């Protein structure tokens, strides 16, 4: 399965990609929302892991756009923001599954097994 990783922190994106490759997934990393959307629309069989704190467009904007697709991919958000800041940003996305950084492979696989959002 293709897993799109939208994460501006290169070390985090790389670590996620390596972990997902070890699980026989096909990760593709993007440093920002613009490069992600320039790569085309993900299929409904894909996963998108998106950092809430992206530098160009907020990760919640990416989630909203993906959820508006006729057949959206599965979505998993990640964040290193404080709880207060995070709750303010996601208040309009009550079903969004968010994993807090630092991430572990167990956290990631458990969230993906639950299908996260959608």
TrEMBL record:
Membrane-spanning residues: none
Modified residues annotated as 4-aspartylphosphate in this record: 51
Family annotation (SMART domains): REC
Response regulatory domain mapped to chain residues: 2-116
GO process annotations (BP): phosphorelay signal transduction system
Gene3D superfamilies (UniProt xref): 3.40.50.2300
Keywords (A to Z) from UniProt: Phosphoprotein
Record keyword Zinc-finger present: no
Organism superkingdom: Bacteria
Protein name: Response regulator FixJ
Lineage: Bacteria, Pseudomonadati, Pseudomonadota, Alphaproteobacteria, Hyphomicrobiales
